[in-house]
Predict the 3D structure of the following.
Amino acid sequence: MIPEPSAPCGARTPELTEDFLAAAAGLLGPRGITTDPALMDAWLTDWRGRYTGRALALASPATTAEVAALVRLCAAHGVPIVPQGGNSGMAGGATPDASGRAILLSLRRMNALRSISADAGQAVCEAGVILQSLHEAAEAAGLRFPLTLGGKGSATIGGLIATNAGGTQVLRHGTMRAQVLGIEAVLASGEVLDLMTPLKKDNRGFDLKQLMIGSEGTLGIVTAATLRLLPAATGRTTAWVGLGGIVEARTLLRHVERAMGETLEGFEVVPAHCLESVLAHQPSARAPLAARHAWNALVECVSPAADDAALREALEAALGAALEDGLIADAAIAASDAQAEAFWHLRDGISAAERARGPAVQHDISVPVERMPEFILAAVPDIEAAFPGTTALAFGHLGDGNVHFHVLAPTGAARGVWEEAEGKTVSARVHDLVTAWGGSISAEHGIGQMKVDELARLHDPVALAVMARVKQALDPAGLLNPGKLIAAPASA
């Protein structure tokens, strides 16, 4: 059981704080903990710049044993813990509140890739391993890790697990949940939950591994994982396609699925406004097609059993048929990996480019794939009519029913002010629309602190009650990532 806090929340004395910090320094050593603002400040604001908090200290343990010892110490002193990976999350889930009572627990020093097995198709790595580093290590072993996203250079494995991250390959390979074969996590009691051994068949009760995935550090702190790897691809072909509308994009998706089968790995949609924003933001970028198209699709096919030429020929035939049928207006197939990467840079650069244009509120939503075009066609004019001067945009992973629905503020709106005022009303309306269409207000970014109130408002009350009971059972003192994912009881 977790010991009772030695002082009530908000009643910590300077003596207790000094005792705690001295004990933490004894556990972690000089590299393992700091209170130096110059070293802490960069990690106290989220990637989007919407949330800034304070922390008692920044702890950086180097081993699972150190994490466990630190958690036990925090439990004994009643110190909340905010776990953090690469600090590249989109929902403020790794940022402490303004009280300064919590410690920020960084997993970045725990970055060992313990093993890669080509025979088993598995990697064992610690929570602080950067996604791009895992990609490179897998490639060197003739394998690949089938999850990628724009922030692969900073996102960590622990953070990806904690948020059940998605990305551009979910269409074929699933979210992070599907990639995790085993997990190691430190519970609020300081006990280590060791479920690292992967078994295809195991019916010994609840799947506790899956409970940890997507829990955003509120049930336990992920310290390591066993991940699945796939054979390296021998064939890859990528195309940029111009379309007249989002409905045509869905029809093209089904057409390419039939023609390319399981080789279809990515299908992203990009409206003209988003492409133009990226081209303006990145002067060296070039539009893949000569003419402007209302919508664009980025299509990628990958296979471990075919070469580039064979895949290219098959995709050319599929797109040629679509062009003859009037389904698409134009298409360009990448002639090299460099050109394919240039296509992806356009897609990955949308969020940064739209952010540079001015204030906006971003929504990571999903509805059933077959309903997504109609949702976009209904939601965009609804939002723009309800909030004059705004521009609503949808882009992203049409293939798995997840788009990023951004609403740009009217011209002249003050950054940071508009988001906190009208922006919150905009988001509530977007979330109401998504819920009415049978969708989710969080498809891949998590709930964090940004959407915790909206989840409480819109999610099934029975599901929320079950989540709260699980949280109470595993973290009765409420010290793990407080204020994230699960709303505090009204009496708290």
